[in-house]
């Protein structure tokens, strides 16, 4: 492999005794310009297995301009990937930048070799900076199991096709995941002639069911568990259990992590877990994937995961470089015990749920908006029919187009569909790139130091939990709550989870609306 990776080996692999199994299998295949789906357990080196041979090709073939786009499902993972790759790439004179809603570093006048981004920001680039993608060679889709069979995955399928039309090169597509039930079916949704590299897991699961965090502390003390990662399904649960843990371990040893917290607080939580000898982190799925928080001695499932795939991702964070996974299940009912035991049994037998795939037609609306905004001259109806044929039937597409015309979103002139002024105005403020529904969110500001803490949504009482602390609203204005910390005697609000359909679901003709669409993870 050293001879194959002559420009990149020293920087990326010299500190390791040898390549991992997935790296040994993937590197030659990627150097041979094959598409691939890599399935291998957490911390097995999948990112390097793909990015290093692509970098080798970039250097040896003298790729110019933006050549590689790395797409991750969360901003946290985008930022972590940037942290991991940027300095290493700098050593081989390869440039990297990030584009998310929080970090719009992308500059079309000064393109980097690699862009790390989210599906929604990728959509924005396809709309606004098509010339930037003229030299694109490869797209990597990380943690694809979180996106597939959701409206974000369906959006990516269309975006890949759009990117291929723009690039002058045949794109190579790479999918990464630790858990996939039907690899061939998933892989073929995103790329043609895709190779499957699947490395079976071999780690031992050591699980203990507990009924309280007090019991967890006894086990932690007896087993000398220094750092523990607690997973919840809901943000409200994170706040509740972080508050409980602080009462047991102390404020200075417990942090919370979820999508409603400010980026600053999330990064502080990640740094705390990575740098400290002891610590408890209570999180949603935001830490289920990728983000480096250092070694974790044990994982606690405070709520039964929503799928076996999520179960495997979460427990895989324990002792990532050890063959033994230490887990605890917080179970207060017989039903929870049975559910967790069935997941453990399924995991040991290598079973994963299979699901019935259905393209979300609401994504067709979002992509029509994105396409027409990107091209003010519009598109012929025949082109749109041909472009969308693998995603929906012609009669469905025509029905959607005609319905959108009646709602004044788009216009038809002879056989050309164009965006209306209403749609162009919506595009100008960046509201057409995401299928994730908008929710009324209030920014929470600490009145004592003016620090931004995070966001809360829905009906809010005067006292609530956020970042594992209890806050009282002093006053509110312009979508902001100015708050102060209060003592534990107050009873904080518990927020309920809100499952939502695609942003554009309500614009579908009623007869095309699906009974069940992909849900937005409450992360």
Task: Describe what this molecule looks like in 3D.
With 523 residues, the chain is α/β, with parallel strands linked by helices. The chain folds into 4 domains: 9-198, 3-Layer(aba) Sandwich (Rossmann fold), CATH 3.40.50; 204-348, P-loop containing nucleotide triphosphate hydrolases (Rossmann fold); 361-435 and 501-512, Arc Repressor Mutant, subunit A; 441-485, no CATH class. It is 36% helix and 20% strand. It is built from 16 helices and 21 strands. The strands form 4 sheets. It has a 7-stranded parallel beta sheet, sandwiched between helices. The longest helix has 17 residues, at 75-91. The protein is globular and about 75 Å long. The two termini are 39 Å apart. Residues 494-499 and 515-523 have low confidence and may be disordered.
SSE map:
Layout: H1 9-13, H2 21-31, E1 35-39, H3 46-60, E2 68-71, H4 75-91, E3 96-99, E4 114-117, H5 119-128, E5 138-141, H6 151-166, E6 172-177, H7 183-190, E7 194-198, E8 204-210, H8 213-223, E9 227-231, H9 235-249, E10 254-257, H10 263-275, E11 279-283, E12 298-301, H11 308-315, E13 324-330, H12 334-348, H13 361-374, E14 379-380, H14 381-388, H15 394-406, E15 410-413, E16 416-419, H16 421-428, E17 441-446, E18 452-457, E19 463-466, E20 469-477, E21 480-485
Parallel strand pairs: 1-6, 1-7, 2-4, 2-5, 3-4, 5-6, 8-13, 9-11, 9-12, 10-11, 12-13, 17-21
Antiparallel strand pairs: 14-16, 15-16, 17-18, 19-20, 20-21
Helix pairs in contact: 2-3, 5-6, 5-13, 6-13
What would you say about this model in short?
The protein has 523 residues and is of the alpha/beta class.
């Amino acid at each position: 492999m050293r001879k194959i990776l002559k420009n990149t080996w020293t920087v990326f692999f010299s500190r390791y005794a040898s390549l991992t199994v997935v790296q040994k299998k993937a590197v030659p295949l990627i150097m041979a310009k094959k598409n691939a789906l890599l399935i291998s357990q957490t911390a097995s080196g999948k990112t390097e297995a793909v990015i290093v041979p692509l970098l080798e090709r970039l250097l040896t073939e003298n790729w110019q301009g933006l050549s590689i786009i790395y797409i991750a499902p969360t901003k946290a993972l985008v930022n972590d990937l940037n942290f991991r790759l940027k300095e290493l790439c700098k050593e081989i004179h390869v440039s990297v930048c990030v584009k998310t809603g929080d970090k719009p570093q992308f500059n079309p006048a000064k393109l980097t070799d690699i862009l790390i981004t989210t599906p929604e920001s990728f959509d924005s680039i396809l709309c606004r900076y098509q010339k930037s993608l003229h030299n694109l060679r490869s797209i990597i889709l990380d943690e694809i199991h979180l996106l597939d069979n959701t409206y974000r995955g369906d959006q990516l399928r269309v975006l890949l096709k759009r990117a291929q039309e723009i690039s002058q090169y045949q794109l190579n597509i790479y999918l990464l995941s630790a858990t996939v039930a039907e690899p061939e079916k998933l892989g073929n949704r995103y790329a043609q002639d895709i190779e499957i590299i699947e490395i079976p897991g071999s780690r031992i699961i050591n699980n203990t069911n507990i009924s309280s965090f007090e019991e967890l502390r006894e086990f932690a003390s007896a087993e000398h568990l220094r750092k523990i990662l607690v997973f919840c399904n809901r943000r409200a649960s994170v706040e509740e259990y972080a508050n409980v843990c602080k009462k047991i371990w102390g404020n200075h040893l417990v942090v919370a992590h979820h999508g409603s917290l400010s980026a600053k607080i999330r990064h502080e939580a990640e740094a705390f877990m990575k740098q400290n000898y002891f610590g408890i982190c209570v999180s949603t799925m935001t830490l289920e994937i990728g983000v480096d928080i250092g070694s974790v001695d044990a994982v606690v499932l405070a709520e039964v995961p929503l799928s076996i795939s999520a179960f495997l991702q979460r427990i895989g964070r324990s002792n990532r470089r050890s063959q033994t996974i230490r887990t605890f299940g917080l179970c207060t009912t017989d039903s929870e015990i049975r559910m967790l035991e069935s997941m453990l049994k399924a995991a040991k037998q290598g079973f994963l749920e299979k699901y019935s795939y259905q393209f979300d037609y609401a994504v067709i609306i979002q992509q029509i908006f994105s396409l027409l905004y990107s091209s003010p001259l519009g598109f012929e109806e025949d082109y749109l029919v041909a472009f969308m044929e693998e995603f929906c039937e012609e009669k469905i597409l025509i029905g959607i187009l005609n319905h959108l015309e009646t709602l004044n979103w788009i216009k038809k002139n002879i056989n050309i569909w164009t965006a209306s002024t209403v749609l162009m105005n919506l595009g100008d403020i960046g509201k057409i790139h995401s299928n994730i529904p908008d929710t009324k969110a209030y920014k929470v500001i600490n009145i004592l130091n003016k620090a931004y803490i995070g966001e809360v949504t829905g009906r809010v009482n005067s006292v609530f939990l956020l970042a594992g602390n209890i806050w009282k609203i002093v006053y509110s204005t312009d979508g902001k709550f100015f708050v102060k910390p209060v003592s534990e005697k107050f009873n904080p609000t518990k927020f309920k989870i809100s499952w939502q359909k695609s942003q554009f679901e309500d614009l579908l003709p009623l007869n095309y609306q699906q009974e069940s669409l992909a849900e937005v993870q409450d992360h």
